[in-house]
Each structure stands twice: as structure tokens, then as C-alpha cells.
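Researcher: Following up on the earlier apo prediction. This time include the ligand. It's zinc ion, with the SMILES given after the sequence.
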Amino acid sequence: MSGDLASPVARFAEPKIDSAQILQPTALPGYHIGMRRRYWLGGAGALTAAGLANAAYRVSPAFWHQFSREIGRPVMPTPLIPNPKQWPDRGVYAAWLGHSTVLLKIDGFTLITDPVLGERVGIELGLFTLGIKRLTAPALRTYELPAIDLVLLSHAHMDHMDTPTLRSLESGKTVVVTSPKTSDIFRAARFKQTHELAWGERVRVGPLEIRAFEVNHWGARMRSDTYRGYNGYVIESDGGRRVLFAGDTARTGAFRQLRSSKPFDLAIVPIGAYNPWIRFHCSPEEAWSMGNDAGAERFLPVHHQTFQLSREPLVEPIERFHEAAGREAGRIAVHTIGQEIRL
Ligand SMILES: [Zn+2]
Ligand SMILES: [Zn+2]
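Model: Understood. Below is the ligand-bound prediction.
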């Protein structure tokens, strides 16, 4: 970073807005920005002025346009509120909490995928976060969650790996499974164990075996840290239950290799942020077909209705997903944030 702060600070105060430009995954804090960890101060995640200026400098004008538009916009309340503390210890239960955050209980073992439960995702500035604002509130706040046995993280993009949420989940009883070279982003030592899984690797956690597989995405949180991994996961329980968590992915043939003699009880698949980012995020039709390639019985579509990361209208992904399913739309187990299901 340049030692000259004048230019970045000026940009922070007076963003040049090109309304024709839309947000790009490489240029907004919802994904990654050009900021280095050395600007962070301790556990509170506060930034120095230099860090703030650098962050402001590296974020695209389109981001500032969206940020300023969103300041006064209220966050819609969650349509439904699940009650996971009532879930029994037998069977598979799931609730969609928003974006890619799904709470699951499999035979009494509780896990959460990509927990992101704050009002914004982006850069932490002490008490608030500079980033993309939610459209819809999370279905549960962290203090409303049951005790979490396992946190499953697909990759380091800020809409999937949210350091304030992860801090609130720190516990000596909770295991974290994440993608390669990402555990430096959160305080891994404050959890019971943290496992970084490369594609094809597996780990046993309680009654579950977690296996990472290759998806079609990328892992950099900031501009240059392209070494970070990105995973999908197969979750198998001792009781024979199978759940697929696809993380973020564009179209790929990798799901065919996940098919086995036993179907997946549930496939958690991303269906939004494809316009124009189809190179990074699959379309609803592709998500439907990839889940079927893997042998999914039921679907929990995620990565929509929570953050505006792309051009498509808010409800288009779930509408297209329903159309893709056609007469089999009954296999879509969850449609609404906060909805809970028993499998
Ligand atoms: Zn991503
Ligand atoms: Zn994402």
C-alpha cells in the first residue's frame, strides 16, 4: 500500500459514482478487498486509519454507490422464525437462517453452515461493519441458536465467512471444518478443533463424517490471497443420513461423482448471484440439475433473498428453481427464510 493517504481518504469522502458500473465480485467487500490483516487491531477487529483508507481506496465506486443507497433502507424482518431448541435428538432437521446459513440437527448433533448473522457483511470497523447490507434479517440471532457442535465453512468470501458471527460462536465445545488456508481469518484457537480439508479429504466429527469435494468457484478473500481453498461437503452420519452442502459453485460435473447407491436426504445448493456472475455462480436450472446429478432427494436452495450481490431480481432465483423442478417441485423442501423442515 502507498504511504500517501491523501488520495484514498479523498475517495472515501467523495466517491466517484459510475451508476452504469455494477458491483463486481473482485471489487466489493462482500467478496474480498485489498486489505491486509496487519491493519486489524486485536480481537475487536478495529481498523487503523491507514487500514480504513486503504480499504476505501480499493473498493469500487459501485460499492460506495450501493453502500450510500443502503444506509437508510430498513432490513425486512424474517418471514418465519424456526424453533430449533424443540428439535428432537432423532432424525434430520434443518432451518434456513438466510443466505448460505443453514442450521442442521442430525441424530442429535447440531451443525451450522457458513454462519453469517450480522446486518452487514464486509470489513469490520470496530463496532460496525462496512459492507453490503442484508435485505432480510437472519431468522435467528446467534444468542438464539442452540449449542453448536460443528461449524462448516465452505470458503473465505465475506458472505460466507463472517468474523463477527464466528467470534460469537467461539466455544471449547465446537469444532470447525473449513477449506485449506482459511483458518487464519478467524480465531481458530478459541474452538475445540479446526480442520482444514482439501478436496477428497475427510474428517470424523462426532457421529458425522465430513468429506470435502471440488466445486467450481474461487477462494480469495482479498485480491491477492488466491491460495485460499474453496469446498463443497458431503456429510454422512453413522445413522446413514446424507446431506450435501455445495458451498458456492458455478456449473460443474463434479456432482456426478458424488452419486452413490444411497441418495442424499438433502442437498443445500446455491441458486442466486448468477447475473452476470455465471462464471462463479450457477443458475437455478444448473443447481437443480447438479443436485440431481448427485442423487439428491430433496433440496434446500440458498444464496438468494438475503444480499443484493447481482442484477437478477430478488425472487427470480427461487421462481426459476421452481420452474426447473416442474412437477417435482415438491422436492424443494424450503422456500422461505426461517422455514424449518424435518426429513
Ligand atoms: Zn463465494
Ligand atoms: Zn457467496
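Model: The longest strand covers residues 92-98.
Researcher: Noted. I'll compare it with the apo version next.
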